[in-house]
Each structure stands twice: as C-alpha cells, then as structure tokens.
Amino acid sequence: VAPFDIVVFDGEDAAVREAIERSSDKFKPNVLKVGRGDLAALDILRALREGHMIALQGDRSVDGRTATVDFLGHPAQFPVGAFVIAALAAAPLIATFGMQVGPFAYEFVAFEPERYTFDRSRSRDEQLQQWVQGYVRKLEGLVRKYPFQWFNFYDFWASPLERSAPQSIAPPSQPVRAVEGPFDKLRTGPR
C-alpha cells in the first residue's frame, strides 16, 4: 500500500494532526506540511514521484494561480495547482467529495481517475481552464443536490482584489444584512 499524505498549510497542521490522532488506529495518514509560496508545489510533486498518494483540497490554492471558469452561472476563480501537479507528476487526479446526509450519516463520492497531460500545441492557461471547468461541473452538480453543504467564509465571487480589501463591519446599532449572490438561487424554503 502506498503512503498516504494529507496536504496542510502552515498554521493548520496542529489541528489536522490532532484529528488524525483521534481517528481510527487502522488508518493514519502522513501530514505533508507545505508553505504558501511557489515552492509548496515542489514538496507535493516530490511525494507523488516517490509513490505517495496525496489528498489536497480542490478549493485551496497551493501557489496562488487560478483559472476563471463558470460556476453556478457566474465567473469564479478556482485554483489550478492540483492540475499542474498531476500533469507534471503524470499522476491520476481523483475528485472526491463528502456530504452530510443526516445525523452521523455521510455520503462520499469519488469520480473516475483522470490523467492530465499538457499539449505543447495549446496554451497552458487554456488547458488549465478546460480542466478546472470539468472539475467545477462535478462540484456544481453536488452543490445543486446539497446546496447547504458548500460554503466559504469570504465572498467567493469577488475578484482577488476585492477579497483582499479590508472589510467594514457594521456597528452593533445597525442591522447586518445578507448579501444576495448567485448561490442564493439554490436555496429552498422560506428566507
């Protein structure tokens, strides 16, 4: 059995290690701690080339590079790092998702492994955008089926500049109102 590594970023490793220690004794993955710079992908690439299986969150950027694709009818940026690493390592990429379907009940979905190879006759950015859009279509299908299982703690559809701008917080005397976005169309029931 190949070694299994979970990629965590600086500052997140303590919580992940604690969760692993509380988990089953039958399965103890390694923690592959990486920084957030350009060299982070090299640690992941090295582990893949040494035969490790890698778990990496698809919505987390390894190196800050993204592709803008259609998500729920609006342009959104998704990281390309997993696709670049899979192509460079000649390793299959398996999109997996987990959803809570009831109290202490979960559904896990794993799509067929896909292999990515850069075609020198096409631009890398064009290929990455196509690969990311394929992943996002899978994500969209699950988000539509389980609309309350996907969320972010920032305005997902904002540009990177808008996301990095300081956010104002309403004083307690003023009500805080929800901002309508494309995800709101998926909600069911009263608001």
Topology:
Elements: E1 4-9, H1 13-22, E2 30-34, H2 40-49, E3 53-55, E4 66-71, E5 74-79, H3 81-89, E6 96-102, E7 105-110, H4 124-145, H5 160-164
Parallel strand pairs: 1-2, 1-3
Antiparallel strand pairs: 4-5, 6-7
Task: Provide a brief overview of the structure.
Helices cover 29% and strands 20% of the residues.
Description:
This protein has a 3-stranded parallel β-sheet, with helices on both faces. The chain has helices spanning 13-22, 40-49, 81-89, 124-145, 160-164; strands at 4-9, 30-34, 53-55, 66-71, 74-79, 96-102, 105-110. By secondary structure, the chain is of the alpha/beta class. Mean pLDDT is 80; it is low at 164-191.
Strand order of the largest sheet: 2-1-3
Mean pLDDT: 80
Euclidean distance between termini CA atoms: 49 Å
In N-to-C order, the SSE pattern is: EHEHEEEHEEHH
Helical coverage, percent range: 25-40%
Oligomer: single chain
Q: How many strand units?
A: 7
Beta-strand residue percentage: 15-25%
Radius of gyration: 19 Å
Unreliable runs:
164-191
Output the keywords.
disordered C terminus, 29% helix, alpha/beta, single chain
